[in-house]
């Protein structure tokens, strides 16, 4: 397991402060007369809120098979798959994802998060891991928080700096995403830094960050990661590039037209091969086939699920896509 992945997983399972990130558990949740109100997951997760969902347009990409999952079982199942956002819906359906998107259909009320029936077309959402200190108001990013880290003026941990100061965390997120970076950090009086892959923790973790305040702190920065993490990429061979998702593909109509010779390519090898060809998008499919493109129509055949992005077999007729 590489150092970046170890650090990221450590952030996923670190103990949360227990405070609500977006939703108010006591006001959102239906309390019945025969059951005391309870936050029915472990202390490592923070409650995000009660949100609407749609059967034909799920807000979270992966569904744990079956029904009647408790919230704590859902938490464990999603964590095992490498996801940090999980939701419980209807009669114990369990959904998982990473990054933003869980609120795409808007917030709602009347969720019974711990009950036998959460409610129709609504879900209770939690995040595994800690919340960014000081980000309980506007300007908070939707991306997963990685932690508070030391930084040095003459040896920056992240390579690109967005010009100026006084960027909110949300503005920093947008600016880095526009530049194709998946890691972003806010420092001092709103300085914004961007990068990809590991390296943000090169000077070690620290404390005392005020992540969304006027002054984050001297020589320290709050770091977040944009987007989903690729399912199955919790070991070596994971690329340092933003993951775009799991998509369908067709043998006679490839979504990414250029194929790297052979099979058995790791995702990182595929990234390097496509980058050497000057191509921005790369995909891993089936038994390590590798495809590249400069066009962003990788989703021409629609989204899919159940990709094992870094496994020996990604899946038949499906592919994991990254932006290199």
- Radius of gyration, in angstroms, nearest whole number: 20 Å
Q: What class, by secondary structure content?
A: alpha+beta
The side-by-side strand order for the widest beta sheet comes to 1-5-3-4-2
Beta-strand residue fraction:
15-25%
Indicate the percent of residues in helices. 10-25%
Give a short account of the largest sheet: 5 strands, antiparallel
List how many beta strands DSSP finds. 15
Task: Give the overall shape, derived from the CA principal axes.
Answer: flat
Order of helices and strands: HHEEHEEEEEHEEEEEHEEE
Low-confidence stretches: 1-22, 31-37
Distance between the termini: 21 Å
Tell me, rounded to a whole number, the average pLDDT: 82
- Give me the number of helical elements: 5
Word description of this protein:
- By secondary structure, this protein is of the alpha+beta class.
- It is built from 5 helices and 15 strands.
- The strands form 3 sheets. A 5-stranded antiparallel sheet has the order 1-5-3-4-2, with helices on one face. It has a 5-stranded antiparallel sheet with strand order 6-10-8-9-7. It has a 5-stranded antiparallel sheet with strand order 11-15-13-14-12, covered by helices on one side.
- Strand 3 (85-89) and strand 4 form a beta hairpin.
- It is flat.
- The model is unreliable at 1-22 and 31-37 (pLDDT under 50).
């Amino acid at each position: 397991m590489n150092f970046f992945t170890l650090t990221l997983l450590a952030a996923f399972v670190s103990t949360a402060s227990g405070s609500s990130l977006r939703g108010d558990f006591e006001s959102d949740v239906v309390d019945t007369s025969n059951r005391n109100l309870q936050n029915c997951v472990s202390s490592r997760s923070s409650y995000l809120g009660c949100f609407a969902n749609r059967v034909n347009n799920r807000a979270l990409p992966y569904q744990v098979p079956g029904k009647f999952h408790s919230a704590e079982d859902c938490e464990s199942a999603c964590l095992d798959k490498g996801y940090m956002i999980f939701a419980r819906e209807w009669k114990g359906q369990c959904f998982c994802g990473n990054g933003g998107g869980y609120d795409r259909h808007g917030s709602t009320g009347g969720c019974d998060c711990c009950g036998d029936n959460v409610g129709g077309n609504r879900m209770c959402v939690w995040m595994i891991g800690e919340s960014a200190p000081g980000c309980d108001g506007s300007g908070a990013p939707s991306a997963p928080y990685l932690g508070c880290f030391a930084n040095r003026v003459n040896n920056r941990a992240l390579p690109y700096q967005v010009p100026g100061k006084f960027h909110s965390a949300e503005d920093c997120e947008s600016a880095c995403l526009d530049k194709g970076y998946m890691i972003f950090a806010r420092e001092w009086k709103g300085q914004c830094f961007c990068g990809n892959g590991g390296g943000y923790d090169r000077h070690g973790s620290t404390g005392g960050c005020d992540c969304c305040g006027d002054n984050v702190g001297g020589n320290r920065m709050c770091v977040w990661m944009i987007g989903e993490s690729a399912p199955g990429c919790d070991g070596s061979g994971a690329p340092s590039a933003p993951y775009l998702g799991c998509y369908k593909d067709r043998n006679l109509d490839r979504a990414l037209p250029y194929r790297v010779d052979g099979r058995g390519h790791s995702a990182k090898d595929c990234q390097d091969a496509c980058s050497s060809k000057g191509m921005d998008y790369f995909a891993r499919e089936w038994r390590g086939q590798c495809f590249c493109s400069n066009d962003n129509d990788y989703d021409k055949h629609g989204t899919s699920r159940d990709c094992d992005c870094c496994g020996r077999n990604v899946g038949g007729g499906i592919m994991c896509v990254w932006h290199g």
